[in-house]
TrEMBL record:
Source species taxonomy: Eukaryota, Metazoa, Cnidaria, Anthozoa, Hexacorallia
Domain of life: Eukaryota
Cofactor(s) this protein cannot do without: pyridoxal 5'-phosphate
Name of the protein in question: Branched-chain-amino-acid aminotransferase
Gene Ontology molecular function: any one: branched-chain-amino-acid transaminase activity
InterPro entries linked to this entry: Aminotrans_IV, Aminotrans_IV_CS, Aminotransferase-like, B_amino_transII, BCAT-like_C, BCAT-like_N, BCAT_family
Any Pfam family the entry gives: Aminotran_4
Keyword annotations of the record: Amino-acid biosynthesis, Aminotransferase, Branched-chain amino acid biosynthesis, Pyridoxal phosphate, Transferase
Enzyme Commission number(s) from the entry: 2.6.1.42
GO terms classed as biological process: L-leucine biosynthetic process; L-valine biosynthetic process
The family this protein is said to belong to: Belongs to the class-IV pyridoxal-phosphate-dependent aminotransferase family.
Species of provenance: Desmophyllum pertusum
Top-level class of the enzyme under EC nomenclature: transferase
Modified residues (N6-(pyridoxal phosphate)lysine): K241
Record's GO cellular component terms: mitochondrion
């Protein structure tokens, strides 16, 4: 591992720089200043990674009682940005609170975007990421939408892999669990004007997570389809993973729970277009109006979050070549009609958290629409098995990247 040496050098260089900053005496030409002077590029650079390791590691949680996103690993990765100097050196430090001005733009106008991906421990004890460059590209697109700075995704991914490697013992020893990775980008400018932020912070925290389906088998979800809640609309930012999209959904989720349902089915417009389910993309396997077996999901029309699971399932289904695979808009009316004619086979949400999550019922305008996903469970199960086999390294695939 060359990283031990790099690590040592980085700490060395960094402490030089700190002494230069805190010193009150004459300016010294420190190695860091030299590097900066020579550098013409202010993007994120893995070469500049600085590691400040933890002194006392935290106890690891019991893998059988993990609660999603409740515990975090020993370290975090952060990179500061300013309009004047570009990206600073990436730093791995002990997991710690942030220090932000109360006026920071992220706290007032939700100048924030994030990502969600996982590291998986295979039976061969290797750690793998699933299509992580897709997350890097999506975070850059979300950053654009929030007028936050873009960055070199490949270099940042190298830093992220280094972080996971340092906290590798936190990746659960289980082929049902994983390490959830949360890259976050926030505007930190201490100013109340509704403006582009002139400073930003990109950071990553890691959280060990248990199985999505606790019983070990699929548990289906029942959905509330209430057109009075709208998640996204044309010209909005529903297709970006921006924090501002999620806070307002909590009330709708509570309405669903108060009616004994698990998730919200998001509808749009007079025609009650079906867009997403909870924080997942939606898929339906049905016999369409022409009598063909077809897998449908809404197209990326600006209201749909471009899920990496969504993209992967579409590619898998096309490679099977066993039925039609279509990205097209469909409505509550289509679902009601197809349900009456027994033409719906399976419906499921798709996302990193669960891979696929079967739907068994939709409550819409006081009416229960039963969906026979659990009775059929052909492709829902096959998607789950094929994708998890790739994620945990049982099936070799270019979608899977090893963390050394
Ligand atoms: C993150 C997310 C998804 C799923 O994306 P994946 O990349 O598959 O995890 C779907 N819908 C919404 C609204 C999301 O936030």
């Amino acid at each position: 591992m060359a990283s031990r040496f790099t690590k040592f050098c980085s700490i060395y260089v960094s402490s030089f720089r700190f002494s230069a900053l805190s010193g009150t005496g004459a300016k010294r030409l420190t190695p860091q200043v030299l590097i900066r002077g020579l550098s013409t590029d202010s993007d994120i650079k893995y070469d500049r990674l600085v590691v400040e390791p933890i002194t006392t590691p935290k106890p690891k949680p019991d893998v059988n009682s993990l609660v999603f996103g409740a515990e975090f690993t020993d370290h975090m990765l952060s990179v500061e940005w300013s309009a004047d100097n570009g990206w600073d050196e990436p730093k791995i430090t002990p997991y710690q609170n942030l220090s932000l001005a109360p006026s920071s733009s992220t706290l007032h106008y939700a100048l924030e975007c994030f990502e969600g991906l996982k590291a998986y421990r295979g039976d061969d004890n290797k750690l793998r990421l699933f299509r992580p460059m897709e997350n890097m590209r999506r975070l850059n697109r979300s950053a654009d939408r929030a007028c936050l700075p873009g960055f070199d995704g490949e270099e940042f991914l190298k830093c992220l892999k280094h972080l996971i490697s340092i906290d590798r013992e936190w990746v659960p020893y289980s082929n049902k669990c994983s390490l959830y990775i949360r890259p976050t980008l926030i505007g930190t400018q201490p100013a109340l004007g509704v403006n582009k932020s002139s400073t930003a912070l990109l950071y990553v925290i890691l959280s060990p997570v248990g199985p999505y389906f606790k019983t070990g088998t699929f548990s289906p979800v029942a959905l509330l389809a209430d057109p009075s809640f709208v998640r996204a609309w044309p010209g909005g930012c529903g297709d970006s993973k921006m924090g501002g999209n999620y806070g307002p959904t909590i009330l709708a989720q509570r309405h669903a729970e108060m009616q004994g349902l698990q998730q919200v089915l998001w509808l749009y417009g007079e025609e009650r277009q079906i867009t997403e389910v909870g924080t997942m993309n939606i898929f339906m396997l049905w016999i369409n109006e022409n009598g063909e077996k077809e897998l449908v999901t809404p197209p990326l029309n600006g209201m749909i979050l471009p899920g990496i699971t969504r993209k992967s399932l579409l590619e898998l289904a096309k490679s099977w070549g066993e039925f039609k695979v279509t990205e097209k808009e469909f409505t509550m009316e289509d679902v009601i009609k197809a349900s009456q004619d027994n033409r719906i086979k399976e419906m499921f949400g798709a996302g990193t958290a669960c891979v696929v999550c079967p739907v068994n019922r939709i409550l819409y305008e006081g009416q229960n629409i039963m969906i026979p996903t659990m009775e059929n469970l052909e492709i829902t199960k096959r998607f789950y098995e094929e994708l998890t086999a790739i994620q945990y390294g049982r099936t070799p695939s270019s979608w899977s990247e090893i963390v050394d």
